[in-house]
TrEMBL record:
GO cellular component, one term: fungal-type vacuole membrane
Primary location: membrane
UniProt membrane topology term: Multi-pass membrane protein
Protein name: Nodulin-like domain-containing protein
Transmembrane spans: 65-85, 97-118, 138-156, 163-189, 228-247, 312-331, 343-366, 373-392, 433-452
Keyword Transmembrane: yes
Database matches in InterPro entries: MFS_trans_sf (IPR036259), Nodulin-like (IPR010658)
Pfam families assigned: Nodulin-like (PF06813)
């Protein structure tokens, strides 16, 4: 019962760690209120995601040495503080792109603190069911988008300021509810879990081949430097390309509603209508990501216990789904197609962030898991930054300012407003998806190479 309560608390508190993925639901409104371009708005999302990734090794080392308490408390405070200050910036309409980026860096650091602590706590609590132990907190991370976007749409429909305020107080309440039980696990695990008994070299040593005989007793065996960097590149491509879509989702929806006649006839309700569709897409993305994280965790456990092969084979699942998503992104020209795109990419992206941590724990053990996973997870930021900039610049180059007349509901006077609109539909952005399609195919071919190498090594080791 105690272990089940720990798993439930670790999973629920991880809702707070996934709030950055909702950024696409309100990024166009941020741009309009603060006067940012699409490229500047993209910088805010990338600042948050980059801090999530780059702070990973440091946070992992803190958790591996000092436990979950420091990371959980600081992470919870950082998330709530970041959204509170950003909400104030939005309400006062004080444009400062570097300040906005700084606030999202704070939120990103807090997200990593909470996420890494909850996953490590769950895996140590259930060391023999790592798939489920990883899948549940990861699923809540993925479900964050649908939970917060639905609550925000219910409490503050069409009100971005109210939605940002919701992102301040709701995570704080969840942390107060679940944080104490996660922190109390420090005492239990210090007595029940001896990391020295499962000590593994760090990734740097493993990749250089300085392995002890004990380390070879895992599903993959020792990785060569080439295999390590191929595995890292696969994560870099699959995760980075998915993050580009996540943070650009608001612009994709806005592009498909870039019809000038529609805007003129629906000018009074246009912003609310677009934001509702943006939140709907974030919900689909979040639900599918949640499902992908949970289902892939169960599949990983069943696969390992029944088939007894390396879980590298499971990477074909997210690679295929993410490839389908890139093709839909290139050819799709309606909101229904964007919904299919969000579902496919969400499930694939969620699977990546369940399967890869399991592979890391299989290869390098749990003793330094948080640090090793943080090191491996550094690279997606490279792909994310490059492709997000390409997407935003492509979008900006196709956007023009238009003047619309709107009637003031209080004075009945007609006022003129200027809106930046791209009227080209999917052509506003789809050249970016042509590039990501090629890169996803490259990632799939690298998985094929690792599978072939694993089969070759298995035949060599098999006794005659």
């Amino acid at each position: 019962m105690r272990r089940a309560a720990v798993l439930a608390s670790s999973s629920l508190i991880n809702l707070n760690a996934g709030t950055l993925y909702i950024f696409g639901a309100y990024s166009p409104q941020i741009a309009m209120q603060l006067g940012y371009t699409a490229s500047q708005t993209a910088k805010i999302g990338m600042a948050g995601q980059s801090s999530v990734i780059l702070i990973g090794p440091l946070v992992g080392k803190v958790i591996d040495i000092w436990g979950y308490t420091v990371s959980t408390v600081l992470g919870s405070l950082f998330i709530s503080l970041g959204y509170f200050l950003f909400q104030r910036q939005y309400v006062t309409a004080s444009p400062n792109i570097w300040y906005s980026c700084f606030l999202f860096v704070i939120i990103g650091v807090g997200s990593t603190c909470v996420n890494n602590a909850s996953i490590k706590c769950s895996m140590v609590t259930f060391p023999n069911q790592k798939g489920v132990a990883t899948g549940l907190p990861a699923a809540m991370y993925g479900a964050s988008g649908v939970v917060f976007s639905r609550v925000g749409a219910l409490l503050y429909p069409g009100d971005t300021a109210g939605f940002l305020y919701c992102l301040f107080y709701l995570p704080f309440f969840i942390s107060l509810l679940c944080g104490p039980l996660v922190c109390l696990c420090d005492l239990a695990h210090k007595h029940d879990y001896n990391p020295l008994s499962q000590k593994r070299p760090s990734i740097e040593l493993q990749s250089l081949g300085t392995l002890s005989p004990q380390v070879t007793r895992n599903l993959m065996g020792p990785l060569s430097p080439v295999d390590f960097w191929i595995l890292t590149t696969i994560l870099c491509l699959l995760a980075g390309l998915s993050q580009m879509y996540i943070y650009s989702l608001g612009m994709i929806v806005t592009s498909l509603y870039g019809n000038l006649d529609l805007i003129r006839t629906q000018i009074q309700t246009y912003s609310v209508m677009v934001q509702q569709h943006q939140q709907s897409q974030v919900s689909w993305l979040s639900l599918s990501s949640c499902s992908g994280r949970f289902v892939s965790g169960i599949v990983a456990d069943i696969y390992s216990s029944q088939i007894h092969k390396t879980r590298i084979y499971l990477l074909f699942l997210p690679a295929t789904l993410i490839l389908i998503a890139q093709l839909i992104g290139y050819f799709g020209s309606s909101i229904k197609m964007v919904t299919l795109d969000s579902i496919s990419l969400g499930f694939g992206y969620g699977s990546v962030y369940t399967i890869f941590p399991i592979i890391v724990s299989d290869i390098w053990g749990l003793a330094d898991f948080s640090y090793n996973w943080g090191m491996l997870n550094l690279t997606p930021v490279i792909t994310d930054i490059i492709m997000s900039y390409h997407f935003a610049n492509n979008y900006d180059s196709n956007t023009k300012p238009y003047t619309f007349e709107v009637k003031n509901s209080e004075t009945d006077e007609v006022e003129s407003i200027i809106m930046s609109v791209c009227t080209l539909g999917r052509s506003c952005y789809n050249s970016s998806f042509a590039i990501t399609t090629v890169l996803t195919i490259c990632a799939t071919l690298l998985i094929v190479y690792l599978v072939i190498e694993d089969s070759r090594k298995s035949r060599i080791k098999r006794p005659l």
